[in-house]
Amino acid sequence: MKNGFTRSEMETALRNAIIKFEQEFMGRGPTEVRVFILRDIILIRLKGILTPAERHLAKNGEGIGMIKQMRQNLISQGREQLCRQILEITGVETTGLFTDIDTHLEERMIVFSLNQDLEARFR
């Protein structure tokens, strides 16, 4: 799948894979997803990610903590699948996966570190 992709096409393929993961694994998709390839990093910004129940929980600190912990656990369980999708699309191994959520902004960032400079392919 990786052969012949332009940067834009690869970012779109990564975007579509993340949306599909969110819908299937998390139960709903975000309202907006942006993907950026930056050297040996893939940065993904997801907006509009909270469910109505999570919005209600996010009204206090304890609820925010619960949301963050639940989302962290779900990403951990889906890590292998996500890293496999990155490899299939890019042909590059993932060395790390980092994520955090801001419940006030209803955004999540996902960062994949890679074992080589993916951006160099498009120079």
Plain-language structure description:
The chain has 3 helices and 4 strands, in the order H-E-E-H-H-E-E. With 123 residues, it is an alpha+beta fold. It has one domain (7-122): Threonyl-tRNA Synthetase, Chain A, domain 2 (2-Layer Sandwich). A 4-stranded antiparallel sheet has the order 1-2-4-3, with helices on one face. Helix 1 (7-26) crosses helix 3.
CATH architecture field: 2-Layer Sandwich
List unreliable stretches of 5+ residues: none
Number of discrete domains: 1
Tell me the β content.
Answer: 25-35%
Helix content: 40-55%
Instruction: Characterize the biggest β-sheet.
Output: 4 strands, antiparallel
Cα-atom radius of gyration: 15 Å
Please name the CATH topology.
Answer: Threonyl-tRNA Synthetase, Chain A, domain 2
Instruction: Tell me, briefly, the overall form.
Output: elongated
Counted beta strands: 4
How many helical elements? 3
Quaternary organization: single chain
- The helix-strand sequence is HEEHHEE
Strand arrangement across the biggest beta sheet: 1-2-4-3
State the secondary-structure class. alpha+beta
Give the overall pLDDT as a whole number: 93
* C-alpha termini separation: 20 Å
CATH class: Alpha Beta
What is the element layout, followed by pairings?
Layout: H1 7-26, E1 32-38, E2 41-47, H2 52-57, H3 61-90, E3 94-102, E4 107-114
Antiparallel strand pairs: 1-2, 2-4, 3-4
Helix pairs in contact: 1-3
Structure in a nutshell:
The chain is α+β, with helices and mostly antiparallel strands and 123 residues long.
